[in-house]
Amino acid sequence: MTAEPVRASIRIDAAPERVWEFFTRPEAMIRWMGEYAALAPRPGGEFTVNIKGTPVRGHYLELDPPHRLVVSWGYAGSEELPPGASAVEICLVRDGTGTRVHLEHRDLPAPEEPGYAKGWTHYLARLAAASLSSGFSVIGPHPRSRSGTGHPGCRTRLS
Predict the structure, then answer these.
(1) Which of 6, 59, 97, 123 is the most buried (most CB within 10 A)?
(2) DSSP code of 144?
(3) Angstrom distances, CA of residue 118 to CA of 50, 62, 140, 144
(4) Distance between CA atoms of 95 and 48, rounded to whole angstroms?
């Protein structure tokens, strides 16, 4: 039996283009989540992150830079949540000079839901801190970047 989707959101004082990099560049990802990342941000591309020694494995399923991405999620060697068994959707919505990050993690086994709810809140706070730290800059505005108040493709509830 699967749980209701886990939803979390946070406002970050950084533009969507900067926040996007933290989901698509390995050196940025490990600043807020994990000790190792191998990322190939294209549909079907590798999404590999080791978090506290736990091997998260999946693929990028959908990308609309710098607004929305969906990755499959699971653990190498797990029977309860094998690679690709669940999906994480991230929506980045411009909010003045910052970004509202909306996350929805779907198709989790029911016993996993409480841990993920706590975990995503923890990691989104780390993302906010990492995005404000010096020593990391985005390559530049993404060519498909656009402003707006939301993204029509997001399934997450914007609250």
Answers:
(1) 6
(2) T
(3) 18, 25, 33, 33
(4) 30
* CATH number of this structure's domain 6-132: 3.30.530.20
Residue type, 69: L
Q: For residue 12, what are its two tokens?
A: 């970050």
Q: Where are the domains of the chain?
A: 6-132
Model pLDDT for residues 100-157, shown as the tens digit of each residue: 999 999 999 999 999 999 999 999 999 999 998 855 554 444 333 333 445 556 665 4
Maximal C-alpha separation, the chain? 44
The predicted model gives 52-62 an average pLDDT of 97
Mean pLDDT of the chain: 89
Tell me the CA distances in angstroms from 11 to 14, 17, 78, 92, 111, one per residue in order.
9, 14, 33, 10, 28
Tokens 């941000």 map to which residue? 41
Which are the contacts of 67, defined by CB distance < 8 A and separation ≥ 6?
16, 91, 92, 93, 146, 151, 153, 154
